[in-house]
């Protein structure tokens, strides 16, 4: 991987196809042989900014950094929203005095961009309103385990569909799919899809890398898929933003269940969690040990993030 072109991990479309595959392979290697990487971050400290509550992101980064021999410092909501108590630029410059990298889970993408602009150390986007690249990377590590265990390039043959709310998770998934060359189908209710800017970006990347991208609001157009992905219909922090009964009515036809899996001939169902069971996914499917890889994805968050940290902080 050309490290001179890989200074931060902010958004999926900032990776080249080669870099994406390298990160996926590295994550798989670290997962298989963690002892070989046990001192990769020895003597290094990572500052972790969390504006939003977290289970998987906090735990997977903290424990992943420890497995690599590094030290993580959690900076929670007690510090307030970035840019309010002090400028984002000052926050970034101060943390750069102490930390070797900055991990940030924030409300707004502008905060991530501000940190990266002013920090003198690598910045990793652990979630913002626009992207969730650590989740998408973990998801493609999981898909590689499911469909490309013999040859990583087989990953490009996978057909992946996302069903539900167009959000930061679907943005990152379809961007990384387009970068890698994976056929991707996005199914969202009308008025709940991605921005036009995001669609244009994905279509251009898919065309460049030889994959198909389909966007529809008709669940019957899902086609044949290898894996179906869904996420909560109401994003964290927006629970009171709209009448829930109205939202549930709009999304009801988009529930991922055994019937939809059979219709699409899909063998894998994915969810980034936390799940609102019996809304976007049935409990029966979420707990289906043959089809559901939700906890495999959760574990792979740690290994994927370890790959990013090793790539950014070691030669």
From TrEMBL:
- Asked whether the UniProt record includes rRNA processing among its keywords, one would answer no
User: The Aspartate/ornithine carbamoyltransferase carbamoyl-P binding domain covers which part of the protein?
Assistant: 7-145
Q: Pfam families, alphabetically? A: OTCace, OTCace_N
Q: Name one GO molecular function term.
A: amino acid binding
Catalysed reactions listed for this entry: carbamoyl phosphate + L-ornithine = L-citrulline + phosphate + H(+)
Q: Which GO terms describe its biological process?
A: citrulline biosynthetic process; L-arginine biosynthetic process via ornithine
Kindly indicate whether the keyword Transferase belongs to this entry.
yes
InterPro entries (alphabetical): Asp/Orn_carbamoyltranf_P-bd, Asp/Orn_carbamoylTrfase, Asp/Orn_carbamoylTrfase_sf, Asp_carbamoyltransf_Asp/Orn-bd, Orn/put_carbamltrans
Instruction: Name the Enzyme Commission number(s) assigned to this protein.
Output: 2.1.3.3
Q: Which UniProt keywords apply?
A: Transferase
Domain Aspartate/ornithine carbamoyltransferase Asp/Orn-binding per the UniProt entry, residue ranges? 157-311
**NCBIfam families named among the record's database cross-references:** orni_carb_tr, PRK00779.1, PRK14805.1
Q: What name does UniProt use for this protein?
A: Ornithine carbamoyltransferase
Question: What species is this protein from?
Answer: Litorilituus lipolyticus
């Amino acid at each position: 991987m050309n490290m001179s072109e890989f200074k931060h991990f902010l958004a999926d479309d900032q990776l080249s196809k080669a870099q994406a595959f390298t990160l996926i392979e590295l994550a798989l290697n670290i997962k298989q042989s963690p002892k070989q990487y046990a001192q990769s971050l020895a003597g290094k400290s990572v500052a972790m900014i969390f504006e939003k509550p977290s289970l998987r992101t906090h735990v997977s980064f903290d424990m992943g950094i420890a497995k690599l021999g590094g030290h993580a410092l959690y900076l929670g909501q007690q510090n307030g929203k970035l840019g309010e108590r002090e400028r984002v630029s000052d926050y970034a410059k101060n943390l750069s005095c102490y930390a070797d990298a900055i991990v940030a889970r924030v409300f707004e993408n502008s905060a991530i961009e501000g940190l990266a602009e002013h920090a003198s150390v690598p910045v990793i986007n652990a979630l913002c309103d626009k992207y969730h690249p650590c989740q998408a990377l973990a998801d493609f590590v999981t898909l590689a385990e499911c469909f490309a265990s013999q040859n990583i390039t087989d990953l490009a043959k996978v057909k992946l569909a996302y069903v539900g709310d167009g959000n930061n998770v679907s943005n990152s998934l379809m961007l990384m799919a387009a970068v890698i060359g994976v056929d991707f189908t996005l199914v969202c209710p009308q008025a709940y899809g991605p921005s036009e800017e995001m669609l244009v970006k994905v279509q251009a990347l898919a065309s460049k890398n030889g994959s198909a991208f389909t966007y529809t609001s008709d669940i019957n157009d899902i086609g044949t898929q290898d894996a179906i992905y869904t996420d909560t219909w109401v994003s964290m922090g927006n629970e009171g933003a709209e009448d829930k009964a109205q939202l549930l009515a709009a999304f009801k036809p988009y529930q991922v269940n055994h019937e939809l899996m059979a219709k699409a001939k899909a063998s894998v169902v994915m969810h980034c969690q936390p799940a609102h069971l019996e809304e976007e996914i049935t409990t029966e499917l979420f707990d289906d040990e043959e089809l559901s890889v939700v906890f495999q994805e959760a574990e792979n968050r740690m290994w994927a993030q370890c790959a990013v940290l090793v790539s950014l902080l070691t030669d």
